[in-house]
Amino acid sequence: MHDTIGIYENRLDFDGNQPVIGIQARRTDKIKEAKNSYHSIDEYEHIFKMYFQMLGKRQDTKTVFVASDDHTVLMHIRKSYKLPTWKILGFDTNTTMSNQKERNSDSGLISIVRDVHFLTKCNFVICGLSSNICRLILEIMATRFPN
């Protein structure tokens, strides 16, 4: 698994020297759950824009890492936020994760581990606490940023 993650690290231009906001937007199972567990893309966008405003002019390019089981989330954000002001990172290979069979496959496991790995490297993560993966990410991040 370590080698696999290394391959993805080489592919992704993830600069740890700049603030990176992570978004974990679950779609496939959240649509069917309680109304409060589904969050629109606009809600995520509002939060990451506020976070970068709070940081001020410390960086020229604002970096956002998007992890979602719905490829349209990444496509939407990439279409709305472009270089040179924004650098949107993410993997297009999550497009089939809405298929339950593929979600429970080896590639589904790699996809989750990969997303958790990169989200925990972010400085700030936006996710829903109804997600077990979100809570895992926050627990791992708490070991990096104790306060």
CATH class: Alpha Beta
How much helicity do the residues have? 40-55%
Query: What is the count of helical runs?
Result: 6
* Strand arrangement across the biggest beta sheet: 3-2-1-4
Distance between the termini: 30 Å
CA gyration radius, whole angstroms: 15 Å
Show unreliable segments: none
**Percentage of β-strand residues:** 5-15%
Largest sheet: 4 strands, parallel
CATH topology: Rossmann fold
- Reading the helices and strands in chain order gives HEHEHEHHEH
Average pLDDT works out at 84
Task: Please provide the count of β strands.
Answer: 4
Protein name: GT23 domain-containing protein
InterPro entries: Fut8_N_cat, GT23_dom
Keywords: Glycosyltransferase, Transferase
GO molecular function: alpha-(1->6)-fucosyltransferase activity
Overall description:
Belongs to the glycosyltransferase 23 family. InterPro entries: Fut8_N_cat, GT23_dom. This is GT23 domain-containing protein. Keywords: Glycosyltransferase, Transferase. By secondary structure, this protein is of the alpha/beta class. The chain has one domain: Rossmann fold, CATH 3.40.50.11350. The protein is built from six helices and four strands, in the order αβαβαβααβα. A four-stranded parallel sheet has the order 3-2-1-4, sandwiched between helices. It starts with a helix and ends with a helix. The mean pLDDT is 84.
